[in-house]
TrEMBL record:
It comes from the Bacteria. The keyword Signal applies. This is Porin family protein. It comes from Christiangramia aestuarii. Residues 1-20 form the signal peptide. Keywords: Signal.
Length: 212
């Protein structure tokens, strides 16, 4: 699964990068997209890569591929607002660090605001800052443990439109989850502060302003 995801990611992103390099005749500074999206949905896959001195980095295996559904509204010419649902699962490698937990499912509901820039008619860039409510559902051999908290993330997307309605995107997200697990003081940050670098890919469904 990990190898397949990496190959798929390379297969999608390499053509996009090569195509972007060919757009040498476009005046990026003065370009204005004639038919910008007013509403767009992203449906994508992503790979959470934990880092830092925390339980997801030290005690868990690399997380399984996650799924996200993301709604965006172009409220002004360069400004977006929206909300997102995303979910992933990770199994435990080292129970000595987290107790008798088999694995954890992480679900996140978030809102975000962003900056949208049309580069050419086909290409656009979208950067967003989001805040969410996150839930960790951990399974043991005979019980379910639920912990809740909030998170903060910053995300960059590069998008390519095939036509008025469909496109693809690649993204990189930096995300921090902050939980409220009651534990001994030396373990607070280890269990409660989780950091992730999250690359992802997916499809975009565009809806347009009839006057655009």
């Amino acid at each position: 699964m990990r190898l397949n995801f990496k190959l798929f990611l390379c297969f999608i992103l390499i053509p996009l990068i090569l195509s972007a390099q060919e757009e040498t005749q476009v005046d990026l500074k003065n370009y204005e997209q004639e038919d910008p999206e007013t509403v767009f949905f992203n449906i994508g896959l992503y790979k959470p890569l934990a880092f830092g001195d925390n339980s997801f980095h030290k005690a868990y295996a690399t997380a399984d591929t996650g799924l996200e559904i993301d709604f965006n509204w172009l409220a002004f010419s360069d400004f977006t607002v929206g909300f997102k649902l995303d979910i992933f699962y990770a199994s435990v490698d080292d129970i000595s660090k987290v107790g008798a937990i088999n694995g954890t499912r992480v679900t996140n509901y978030s809102i975000h605001a962003g900056y949208y820039k049309a580069i050419t008619r086909e290409w656009n860039w979208h950067a967003s800052l989001g805040v969410g409510s996150v839930g960790y559902r951990s399974s043991t051999y005979d019980d379910i443990i639920r912990e809740y908290g909030w998170n903060l993330y910053f995300q960059n997307e590069l998008n390519y439109r095939f036509n008025q309605y469909f496109g693809i995107f690649g993204k990189v997200q930096l995300r921090a989850d902050f939980l409220d697990i009651e534990t001994a003081r030396p373990k607070d940050d280890f269990l409660n502060n989780q950091w992730f670098l999250i690359p992802g890919i997916g499809i975009r469904i565009n809806f347009h302003n009839p006057e655009g």
